Each structure stands twice: as C-alpha cells, then as structure tokens.
Amino acid sequence: MNDIRVRFAPAPTGFLHVGSARAALFNWLFARHTGGTFVLRIEDTDPERSRDDLVEGIERSLKWLGLDWDEGPYRQSQRMHLYAAAADRLATEGAAYYCDCTKDDIAARKPTGGYDGFCRDRGLGPGPGRALRFRTPHQGETVVHDAIRGDVVFENANLEDFVILRGGGEPMFILANAVDDADMRITHVLRGEDLLSSTPKVLLLRHALGYDPADDPLYGHLPVIVNEKRQKLSKRRDDVALEEFRERGYLPEAMRNYLALLGWGPGDGREIMPVADMVAEFRLEDVKPSPAFFDVQKLDHVNAEYIRALPVHTFVRDALPWLEEDPPWPPENFDLATFEAVAPFVQERVRTLSEVPGVVDFLFLDEPVIEPDAWEKGVVKVKDAAGLLADAATAYAALPEWSAPALHQATLAVGEARGLKLGKAQAPIRVAVTGRTVGPPLFESLTALGRERTLGRVDAALARLNSP
RNA sequence: GGCCCCAUCGUCUAGAGGCCUAGGACAGGACCCUCUCAAGGUUCAGACACGGGUUCGAAUCCCGUUGGGGCUACCA
Is A232 within 8 Å of A292 (Cβ atoms)? Predict the structure, then answer.
C-alpha cells in the first residue's frame, strides 16, 4: 500500500442509489489500480439517518457488487467530538460566528436566496437555537483542482456564510466532511458532480482549520447519471435502488460492468470486460465530464452477455431463486433435472434471470397457458392443423426412443408427408404443448417434458380444436 | 435570479489540428443462418448545437450565443 487514500462516503438513506454505487465503484477501481487504500465512511451526522439497518443495506449492496473496503466503515455519528472541536476552534478564532436568524427572517431580507450576513458582526455567543456560520472571505478566489474537469475557480465573494453547526449543536455534513477527509488523509475525492459547488466551502474550512493547502485532495467530480428527461436520477421518479436490480435479475458482474461504462471506458473501445481488466486500465483522465444516461436497454444487453457467458451449472444455480420463490406453477411441480435439461437453451434466450420462469413455465404447469394470439396464429390459421397434430401424435406414440433427434426426424416426416417444411410443421405442436409460438428448441423441450405429457397436450389441443 | 458544470448518431462513446467520406456499441430496419424465438453473420439508416475567430488546415484550440443540467437547506 502506498499513500493514496480514497473514500466512499454515503449518507444512509435506506438503500444504495445507483449513482452512489457508481461513485463507490470508481473509487474502488482507482484504489485497486493505484494500490491505494479504499475507506468506507458513513456520513450519518443527521441523527435521523443514524440507523444500523440503513448502514447494513449499504454494506450488503457493496458486497453484492464485489466492492471490498480496506478501512471502516467509520461512522460520523461516532466521531462527533472531532467536529465539535473543529467548530469550537473556528468560533474561538473568529472564523465562524453564531447566528439566530430564522429561515423566515433570511427569506424576508433576501428573497433571492442565500444568507445576507446579518449576524456576521453582532458578536453573538453560543445559545440554544443558534447556528454557527462560517465567515467566508469577501475577496480572493478558491480553486478546486479537478482531475476530470481541470481547475474550477470560485470567487469567494459568491460564497455565502454557510452553517457548519445547527442550532441543536449537530455538525453539518460539510464540516464533518472537511474534518474527516483531512483527518483520514484522503488524497483523492471521487464523487458526484452535484457536490462540485460545495467543494470551495470544504476547502475554505480545511484551510481555516489549519490544514496545509498543499495537502488538499485532488478532486474528481463524476458526471451525474440522468434519466431519459436528462435529469439527475432521483429516488422519487426513477428506479435507483441497487438492490432492486438484483431482484429484477441482474447479475452483479453485469451491473458493475455497466456502471463502469457510465462515464468511463478503456481507450480501446471495449465494453464488456472482466473486472481485472477494468482495474488494470482505470485512469481518472479517461473519465468523461458529461452527464450519462442510465440506459436500461444497454444494461439488459450487458446482462444478457454475462448470462450467456456463465457455465451452465452456475446459470442453473443463479436462476434457482426465481424458480423456487413464488413461481407461476405449483411449487411441488418443479423438477431440477428437467430444468437442467433445457437450461443451456434458456440461458441463451433471457436478458435477466427474472425472465427465466416465463420461458420454462410450460414444463412445470399442469396445463400450458395457451396464449390466444399464439393459438390463433399457430393453430387455427394453419391449414389442417388438426390432421397434422393427429399425425404427430401417432408418430410420437410409436417412437422407439423419446429423444430430440428422434422427435426431430418424426416431425420432419409428418411435415413432409403434407408438403410442409419443418418450420411450418412444428408450429401447431409448439403452441399445443407450450402455449406459445416462441420458446426454446421444441424437440429438446418435448424430451424434457416427457412422452406422456406431450401426447396429453396434443390430444387436449385436438379436442379444443374440434369443439365449437 | 446568482454561481458552477456540460455539449459528436435516439443512447453510451472513439476522436488529444491533417489518419474523418467522423469509427464502434446498444436500440431500430433489411437480408443470411435456422424447427420458433434467441444467439451469430452481413448490411442500411443515423451525429460533430449555432455564430465568430486562430490556422495552410478545426469535431478537435479561443470567444460568444443557444440548449441541457447541478447547486443555491440549521439534508447529505
């Protein structure tokens, strides 16, 4: 390990937001690439957010994504004395002052927003309900050195006197953030672009606290992740909980790979790549500054690629939860060997694990659910479907061996006798047995289903066709 | 409103002054392969926001405009 230290510092909100997950991933990639240290710090200075279960959710999501940390989790709620000491020092030295203005007072005096400095020179002491504000300089400028955007210059005069201690004495995140990054000797801060405008305040705070500007971290403000309306992904209107993606059938490796593509890519244009390669090739200079759209279609594609690349037994294992928990068939009907027989074909046809039950349901349902459109298109509109189904039933019943090649041959023969190519001949049988016009290869499906059930379903279709 | 960020196909991007007739991937169209659907292959369509500079030469550098976004809490 060298001196490079990065941190992922989420506020516990109940779940890990995909934007936060992306920030965590980039910090992790950078730490692993450089041989630095990855620190996990929970920013729970707001008492309402300081709950163990919320923290556990974050840890669970990080582990799911395969991100491990070297230090922490530190909890700001357990480091409050440090922030209190820092605030004390600032107040004593006159770098901060107490303020008893209410929100309404401020709004009445300055409707355009921002604090007007009313209490700046009133010499108020600490007291109940009095917030502590940082005295920002009226001249000069503060420069944020950003590896992704270059230097960003802020005029100090544009910075308002912001609150660092609330009326109740609790520190604001910006104070805790400044103290902790300095105290933990963080060298690189990779976080969302939405924090860019608060960075000069953090820097001012650090310097007022006596930390050498030469030790300021190098920042890297990651592009925001936006929805189709180009707005920052929000809890209210978008699907942002990482855990939800797991529940929707995305593989962690795929999620991680896709997240890495949001604002970064290796020079050679590769997209699907093992995590070891991402670590090897991750460079801050390659991170894009422009906003990235969270494209579920692309995510689906990446996930499908990962699913297809899985060894079959792994795919079977990963798909099991979707087959065993709340399946669309009577649970006792499920048979692992039957699923394993068709798994290689299923694997190639799904984009998420949650799609698996829908592809194999006909194997475990007592009766297939015949889709009306499929019945119409695949059976009713087919010339003499009844005759074809009857012939197939006869041929299948006579088969000496119930296997895919034998079924293939038999079906081919039944079709040829009627001048039909296999593509046409298989359609009514597929609908009769699976209820759909699409699905895994028919003959492998029939093999897995078994002769008895196959014939039963063909007979049922015949009966349905003959009844008015 | 103020401060700040961003700007290449619908989307993610390649592009660091001539290699660009702007390349790839996802999504979309067509065709091939094929027992259906997938997968795979071939292929079509599709972009440098606009205006000024700088330069022999600009998608690439500078300025402005426009557009989008973020922040503007005693949340983080």
Answer: no
A175 within 8 A of A205, measured Cβ to Cβ: yes
Establish whether the CB of A424 is closer than 7 Å to any nucleic acid atom in strand B.
Answer: no
Amino acid at A385: A
A261 touches strand B (CB under 7 A): yes
Query: Which tokens hold the place of A32?
Result: 């692993």
Contact positions of strand B to protein Cβ (< 7 A)? 1-8, 10-15, 23-27, 35-39, 68-76
Choose the catalytic residue: A63, A103, A110, A235.
Answer: A235
Task: Give the model's pLDDT for residue A442.
Answer: 96
Which structure tokens are listed for A291? 């906003």
| pLDDT value for A265 | 86
Taking the C-alpha atoms of residue A41 and residue A55, their distance in angstroms, rounded to an integer, is: 10
A344 CA to B5 C1' in angstroms comes to: 48
Nucleotide with minimal C1' distance from the CA of A160 is B72
Whether A288 sits among the annotated catalytic residues: the reply is: no
Give the H/E segment covering residue A155: strand A150-155
Q: Rounded CA gap, A28 and A67, in Å? A: 7
C-alpha to C-alpha distance for A462 and A41, rounded to whole angstroms? 66
- Please give the Cα distance from A14 to A50 (Å, whole number): 11
- pLDDT (tens digit, 9 = 90+) per residue, A49-59? 767 788 888 99
